Amino acid sequence: MTYLIIGLILFLATHSARIFAEEGRAQLIAERGLLKYKIAYSIVSVIGLVLIVWGYGLARYDPVYIWFPPIWTKHLAALLTLPAFILLVATYAPPSKIKALVGHPMAAGVKLWALSHLIANGTLADVLLFGSFLVWSIAAFSSARRRDRAQGVAPVQGKLLNDGIVLVAGGVLWFIFARHLHAMLFGIAPFG
């Protein structure tokens, strides 16, 4: 569990700079330069992610059960991850009405992903992993929306065609991941 916790601290701390230390982040970029900041940010994030994956994998060998979720929660989780994938695609796709409506689709997608996995899994490692990401995504979404309001940022209204692309691409990615990659990567088949 130690590796999981250290990984979560490293990964979420780097991704929380804009939430809790916007001025410190700006000062560090001004002093060291954007490129050096991004390199350090990336290195710490990758180390954190590796530790999360490793620690979570180790925790699965000796699980500490907090609750035993009913089987229907696994089906609900599979369905909730569909809009999470759509929001993920909306983050990187050309401007869409979905992105304009949500404002920060990555944080919203992480919220759905974390919530869906939290309700469908009942071990201590699951609570630590998905609970941490849920709390972080709520804080990140709230902080980003507050920052937008303070800076007068208005969402770019996208084209309806881009929404179609986002919906189709998100649905296809979700299907491929749920049907094939999830079992291969994590040993659990959402539809199996």
UniProtKB/TrEMBL annotation:
<protein>
    <submittedName>
        <fullName>NnrU family protein</fullName>
    </submittedName>
</protein>
<feature type="transmembrane region" description="Helical">
    <location>
        <begin position="37"/>
        <end position="59"/>
    </location>
</feature>
<keyword id="KW-0812">Transmembrane</keyword>
<dbReference type="GO" id="GO:0016020">
    <property type="term" value="C:membrane"/>
</dbReference>
<feature type="transmembrane region" description="Helical">
    <location>
        <begin position="113"/>
        <end position="139"/>
    </location>
</feature>
<feature type="domain" description="NnrU">
    <location>
        <begin position="4"/>
        <end position="190"/>
    </location>
</feature>
<keyword id="KW-0472">Membrane</keyword>
<feature type="transmembrane region" description="Helical">
    <location>
        <begin position="71"/>
        <end position="93"/>
    </location>
</feature>
<keyword id="KW-1133">Transmembrane helix</keyword>
<dbReference type="InterPro" id="IPR009915">
    <property type="entry name" value="NnrU_dom"/>
</dbReference>
<dbReference type="Pfam" id="PF07298">
    <property type="entry name" value="NnrU"/>
</dbReference>
<feature type="transmembrane region" description="Helical">
    <location>
        <begin position="160"/>
        <end position="177"/>
    </location>
</feature>
